[in-house]
């Protein structure tokens, strides 16, 4: 390539990164790209799966890490490759040119400061107990050393780094902290010729050819998917959760009104990948592994995963709200992050309604977490360090809310958590009418471990807040334990 063409390519890349970064700062995924909550649930019967699911349900708080080539320009993960109307993309750039640019980001993705131990430290400081890491997103770029394709982190400028096999070292770092380990894996793969075939245009998120006509090609994709998941189940240590994204890749008979409500195109053919075969292999290699085959009702959706939202009411099925810390799942410059108070409020509400919360963060292209993310995680952890007894190893109760107060329970105690906004003055007393204590109950302020005074009157309990607590300017939530 001539020096002129090299310079020209570089300038085009700079312009594309600038445009896409500006779009990424304001772009939040449309409902078309969001997975809702399944309305149906089938409980697993395998005792090992049930045991692991119970353990997972006690963890309450996890970290979801989106990281891939999309971190380089700082744009929304994968979706800009998709040619659906809801996707905002620079209209001055030809679609096929855009795809070439995006898929060539692997040539400059070189996260030389990658330090998974620091990620695990930040998650531990936040009070998190499990992690889900994107081994591959829809764009098809692999963050592990798969042998099924060359489109992977170990085949670019980062390949000679001692921790080039990123997923392996992420899992190892979190495993050392006794975290449960989750492998996020995208069922669709837009880089694979067995899913998006260059023979045809790519009008939407689905396979772009007639699977029934070219069944041999789809069988190749099923083999490709099976082999990749087998690698993850074999070569990456103990894995507790297989978190399968891309719910439109599913048997046609499972398409229902929930799926149609996404507004996404639904093909006439069945995009099934033989989950029974994958599941049998995975559970042979990882006994008791939990499957989260998102929105695909049946034996491989062991817990439900409402995205970017919290269910309106308490749910009795295992579930997990996945919520990003910012507007985006991955790294986007100047992404507005939620306050630590907002995250704590979300966590308390989720746990009171019977769920877990998976908080999404995105490392920067150099491999480090943004300093603001680390600081917010630390703030969350300060609150959980004092009040975690009301969160971890608890279960939901029917009367889970009374105004700004949420309730949880364990085998011995009921917990009342009063939520407040940043800067809100704390009252002298906190009162509620649900889950009333007995007259002889012991009520303690969790953050101090000291008993507090209370009185029962007119069908309510009034709990006195100590003066030193009321004098604080900010308090995300005040938690009490109640022993009758």
Automatic annotation (TrEMBL):
<protein>
    <recommendedName>
        <fullName>alpha-L-fucosidase</fullName>
        <ecNumber>3.2.1.51</ecNumber>
    </recommendedName>
</protein>
<dbReference type="InterPro" id="IPR016286">
    <property type="entry name" value="FUC_metazoa-typ"/>
</dbReference>
<keyword id="KW-0732">Signal</keyword>
<feature type="domain" description="Glycoside hydrolase family 29 N-terminal">
    <location>
        <begin position="36"/>
        <end position="389"/>
    </location>
</feature>
<keyword id="KW-0326">Glycosidase</keyword>
<dbReference type="InterPro" id="IPR017853">
    <property type="entry name" value="GH"/>
</dbReference>
<dbReference type="InterPro" id="IPR000933">
    <property type="entry name" value="Glyco_hydro_29"/>
</dbReference>
<comment type="similarity">
    <text>Belongs to the glycosyl hydrolase 29 family.</text>
</comment>
<keyword id="KW-0378">Hydrolase</keyword>
<comment type="function">
    <text>Alpha-L-fucosidase is responsible for hydrolyzing the alpha-1,6-linked fucose joined to the reducing-end N-acetylglucosamine of the carbohydrate moieties of glycoproteins.</text>
</comment>
<dbReference type="Pfam" id="PF01120">
    <property type="entry name" value="Alpha_L_fucos"/>
</dbReference>
<dbReference type="InterPro" id="IPR013780">
    <property type="entry name" value="Glyco_hydro_b"/>
</dbReference>
<dbReference type="InterPro" id="IPR057739">
    <property type="entry name" value="Glyco_hydro_29_N"/>
</dbReference>
<dbReference type="GO" id="GO:0006004">
    <property type="term" value="P:fucose metabolic process"/>
</dbReference>
<dbReference type="GO" id="GO:0004560">
    <property type="term" value="F:alpha-L-fucosidase activity"/>
</dbReference>
<dbReference type="GO" id="GO:0016139">
    <property type="term" value="P:glycoside catabolic process"/>
</dbReference>
<feature type="site" description="May be important for catalysis">
    <location>
        <position position="322"/>
    </location>
</feature>
<dbReference type="GO" id="GO:0005764">
    <property type="term" value="C:lysosome"/>
</dbReference>
